[in-house]
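Please review the protein record below. Tell me whether the encoded fold seems credible here:
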Amino acid sequence: MSETMRVVEISQSGGPEVLKPAEREIPAPGHGQVLIKIAYSGVNRPDALQRAGMYAPPPEASDLPGLEAAGEIAAVGPGVDDLEVGDEVCALLPGGGYAEYAVTPAAHCLSVPKGMDLKLAACLPETYFTVWSNVFQRGRLQAGETFLCHGGSSGIGTTAIQLARHFGARVFTTAGSPEKCTKCKELGAERTINYREEDFVEVLKAEGGANLILDMVGGGYIKRNLQALAVEGRLVMIAFLSGPKAEINFAPVMAKRQTITGSTLRPQSDLAKARIAESLKAHVWPLLEAGTVGPIMDLEFPLEKAAEAHARMEGSDHIGKIVLKVA
């Protein structure tokens, strides 16, 4: 193994053009960590926020973007007993995925589902950790409930639709074009709402309200989400593409006994992420191996063209996940 690796780093805060190829030393795994030789890395909205200077990595994490990857174990640190050099894994990363090698806690690695290639496996960790923890653990979605997922054609949305449908929920989703709405319906959405043409509040009110809403838009959607919720409904926020602030009348929230909550994945403790991984392994990985659910991939870009990948993501023309080919 050479001592240096190819990476893409953030040269300064700004648009996609600030992502620049560079070379760095290969990191060494610490206690409980593994070093992954990356084949593919996933591209996610938090990467763009970090690039723009709006989402700083945790103090102990790499300053390189990239929160998920798939590849093989290149080295194991002290205290790692259940993974070996050569094992193929996909992993949630604290950062550093835009590189040939990255370190992460061994407990944040999951085996590549049988029959799945590394390109698709790189689409799994960030999205499935986020959806599982927010929709099913925090949001407590149950069979028979009405679930509204905004951004249905995104990586998060395509995952949430499939899992919610499998576990028996009625799935409603918003998207911004007929093509995206068609894809959401193919994945299992009972009703797709083109937000450019319809009001999701009126659609959900006609159905008795949503029991759970997963939102990454924020801004003006926050008030409208609460209007679309049923009695005892839950709103789970995972991002704020339109801003984190809204003026809310809490009287209806109290009267309808609604819950407003949310989370971000990256700042959570290693133990919390390890527990999500264990739950995914038990409840979701068998579905992936059976082909019952699966990642939807948009386009692949070479690592050195990460800027083009970011431009694609921020243009919102994609359906599903975007990946970087590293090896």
Residues 4-124+267-325 form a domain with the Quinone Oxidoreductase; Chain A, domain 1 fold (CATH 3.90.180.10).
